[in-house]
Amino acid sequence: MVITLTNVELPGGRVVALAEIPLACCALEVYALRASCAESAAAPTEALLLVSGTLTTALLCEIQVALAQFQAYLPELPHRIVAVGACATSGGPYWDSPTVIPGLAEIGIHPDLYIAGCPPSPGAIASALSGALQGVSA
């Protein structure tokens, strides 16, 4: 899994360096959100990593490598991790499966923002991101 960052303008005008770890269903909602955001040539104010979908033991190493890549990019910017959807937050409907990790916190990754839903709509994701970023100075 390779992480790439793209400068995008979120609803509300804030420019961020956006990356994703798309693991399952909620990735479609994240892709829909990204499609609605314009790429920007402006300098980002922070880096956001959206983790969406079911976390499994088989993907654990790849998730950890992707997280390390994300944290190494743009070291001058604050980095935030966002858990998108029920699976990334708490394991979702699969929480009791033997190969499912019930949320990012279970593997020592503590998101800065949790976005609830199964799946959350692109509008709900945009609203949560915009709301969470309002208090951050540029």
Helix content: 25-40%
Q: Assign an overall shape.
A: globular
- Series of secondary-structure elements, N-terminal to C-terminal: EEHEEEHEHEEH
The poorly predicted ranges are none
Bin the strand percentage. Answer: 15-25%
Total number of beta strands? 8
Separation, N- and C-terminal Cα atoms? 30 Å
Number of domains: 1
Characterize the biggest β-sheet.
6 strands, mixed
3D architecture notes:
With 138 residues, this protein is an alpha/beta fold. The protein has one domain. The protein has 4 helices and 8 strands; from the N terminus they run ββαβββαβαββα. The strands form 2 sheets. Strands 3-1-2-4-6-8 form a 6-stranded mixed beta sheet, with helices on both faces. The chain has a two-stranded antiparallel ribbon with strand order 5-7. A hairpin with a 5-residue loop joins β1 (6-9) and β2 (15-22). α1 (26-36) crosses α4. The longest helix has 13 residues, at 60-72. The chain starts with 5 loop residues before the first strand and ends in a 5-residue tail after the last helix. The model has no long low-confidence stretch (mean pLDDT 90).
